[in-house]
Amino acid sequence: MTAVTVLATGPLATFQDLGRPGYAHLGVPASGGADRGSLTLANRLVGNHESAATIETTLGGLRIRAEGDVLAVVTGADTAVRHNGVPVGLAATVVLREGDELAVDPPTWDLRNYLAVRGGFDVEPVLGSRSTDTMSGLGPPVLTANVTVKVGDAAGEWPPVESAPANTAHPRVVVLEVDEGPRADLLAAPADLCAGTWVVGADSNRVGVRIDRAETSSYPLLAHREDAGEMRSEGVAHGAVQVPPSGRPVLFLADHPVTGGYPVVAVMSDAAVDLAAQLVPGSEVRFRRR
């Protein structure tokens, strides 16, 4: 049996694939990788189907040992990836021989990394997905040390060269592209969302990113219209930008609830959701209409 043993997990490590869409009418979130671009890239680089199960880490600290020969790669946040202590590079495939170790350092930029192995991780699917949903508790448990995980058979064709990762810029202010949401008209001034910059708060997670104005900002929070009244709960899309009465938006990520009772004033593009999933507390963001 080919497998990996988890030696350390860092602050949070979970199994993630592309999620379990199609069950929102039953109250089941889609979940899946928070940064799906990095997840699918990792799978392509080891010749997996894009939906194969990976390990998503938050703030690094993951360390594994190969039980048999394993082809592995790490993508996502800028970090040092170490093979038996020697740096091997981000988004670079590496062959792990029996007993070899692979470690993911805390990132120097961004938040989440994705470890893929050729064949994917063979954990028990729930409703067709191997994703750990941190809000509902569905899927495999959060990873802990001293767990051995079997490598599966989700390998596919090797990727074309155009699948190679592009160079990643690190702008001081991250620009998130959005489309107008279904309840933008419930804001007193909808244009205020795209005015000035916002700052990511510390109380963000896989459910959503909470943002606020900087103390020095001259731009206002988002106010509901005085005649807006109380909304009925309604469906919430992946990437929705919801505005509670506090006026501080929440950007919904992979483990977001399927319904909500506050106005959804914008919806992020797929690329913007991936960017939002990598935001760390203190990051500055700006919204731009598509």
Automatic annotation (TrEMBL):
Q: Which domain of life is it from?
A: Bacteria
Q: What's a Pfam family this protein contains?
A: CT_A_B
Which InterPro entries does the entry link to? CT_A_B, Cyclophilin-like_dom_sf, PxpC
- Species name: Gordonia namibiensis NBRC 108229
What keywords is this UniProt entry annotated with?
Answer: ATP-binding, Hydrolase, Nucleotide-binding
Q: Where are the transmembrane segments?
A: none
Instruction: Return one GO MF term.
Output: hydrolase activity
Q: What is this protein called?
A: Carboxyltransferase domain-containing protein
